[in-house]
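Running low. Any example?
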Amino acid sequence: MRMRLFLVVALAASVTYAEPFRDGDRVVFLGDSLTQGGRYHRIVADYYLTRFPERNIRFFDAGVGGDSVKYCWPRFVGDVVRPKPTVVSVMFGSNDAGFRSPAEFMADMTNLARRIARECGNPRTIWITSTPYDEYSVRESPKARKGYDAKMRVLEEAVRIVADFAKGGYCEFGDPMRDYMAWKRHDDPSFSLMPDRDHPKEPGHLVMAWQFLKSQGVPSLVSALDIDAATLTASAKNATVGNPVREEDGSLAFTVTEKALPMPFHAEAQFVLDDRPIVKNLSRETLKVSGLGGGWRVLLIDGEQIIEASSKDWAHGV
């Protein structure tokens, strides 16, 4: 892409965490309605598509609304075994808490771990604690089922134990989402990531995907460019960049070819991006330009204005 930097001629005021997916992986996401439709794992897939475009990774949605560990057996062969997974990610608990005791849930999950290993050729596994039930936001509708989230918390401990038993990766959705909602409710007691108290919308799924990718320890860097306007030299990480040239209008122009792209985010979830360091953690793309002297500069990428900053900020990195 073609970049140009202009002077602004104006006044400007315990657990083992999951490993990243590999080239050739076939990943099945098994779960209930919180998985069905592929929203949080669509965001996960977006990360891998933009960050590692050379990797061939297939994602399979095996979520069914209303399902539980006990009742996923009839579809197990078709939804889990048949795709020949190298990785199986499991998230249950939201429905199980309503009719299974902790001991029964533990037995169900342990049997599932054994069956995955036996029938799927011992793939890598990831065990996720379910999203919480929101009984704490202050609103008239829908009425909260008091005590249901406490049941969810007990099952989350079982997920930790099963992850250890299966020697699989572990990811936590419950407490990070509870903590975020509690923080937001300081200003808005009615705030929730789950409008119906059960099912997250796009902002909630972004929080889920962020937690999932953090649990994998994925790299944050998209690219880092370092331009020296005084010596007309350049260097880059995860990209190639030509030395800048000074054009007749006084701007610096340089061409960059990146090995990755920033990941896309849904506009509906913008407030989450403002609240949490998700871009810093997952999509960090930086440009440092030293030797500019004074004044403000605007960055154009392929003719489109992207950002305006002071020379001091550019020298520090934007």
Observations:
- Residues 7-14 have pLDDT under 50 and may be disordered.
